[in-house]
Amino acid sequence: MTASVRDDLLAAGLVVFDRVGFEAATVAAIRTRARASNGSFFHAFGSKKELAGALFLEVLRHYHAAVLAALDPAPGAEQGIDRLIRAHLDWVVTSRREARYLFEISRSEWGEEVRDAQRAQNARLAEGIERWRAPLVASGELLPMTPGMFVSQLIGPAQIFCRAFLSGRDRADPRVEADTLIACAIRALRPLDRINRQ
C-alpha cells in the first residue's frame, strides 16, 4: 500500500467525520470518499477508531507546525505573543475542518491508543515555545510562570472565540478580536514596567 492511499483515507476520514461526526461515520463511507477498496482500508487501519487516532495525530502535527513557525526567527516578547495568537487564530480559520476535528470532534475515549504519541507531540511543542520563552523570562521580559499557565494565558482566551466559531454559535471570524486578545495577553504575560518598550 502506498502512502498516498493512506493519505487519501485520512483526508476522506476528515471530511466524513466533519459531516456526520465520529459515531455516524462508517468505514464504507470513508472508503467510498477515498476511492479505496476494503482491503486497502484494513491494510492501512485496523478500524475506524484507528484511522481517527492517526488523523488526530496528523492534524495535531499540522497545528503545532503552524504555531512553532510563528517563532522563527525568534521574536521579542510582545512580537512573539502577537505572532503566537495570530498563528492560532489563522490556523483555526484557514484550517477550519481540521480545527473542528482537533477541538470539537475528537474524543478521549477513542484516543487512548495514540495518547503516548500525543504526549510526545505536545512535549515537542512545549519545548519549542520554551526555547523562545525561557530567555525572555530570565531577562525579565516575560513574567515567570509554569509553561502550562503561560499557554493558558496566551491561547485560552482566543480559544473561547475559536470554539464558538467552530461550533457555529458565532459566525464572526475570531481574527477580528486579535488586537484585543494580544493586548490582554501582553498585560497578563509581561511585567507592567516592560510593556511597550520594544
UniProtKB/TrEMBL annotation:
Which ranges does the entry annotate as DNA-binding region?
26-45
Q: Where is the signal peptide?
A: none
Tell me which UniProt keywords the record has, alphabetically: DNA-binding
Q: Where is the HTH tetR-type domain?
A: 3-63
Annotated GO molecular function terms are: DNA-binding transcription factor activity; transcription cis-regulatory region binding
Q: Which domain of life is it from?
A: Bacteria
Query: Mind telling me what this protein is named?
Result: Transcriptional regulator
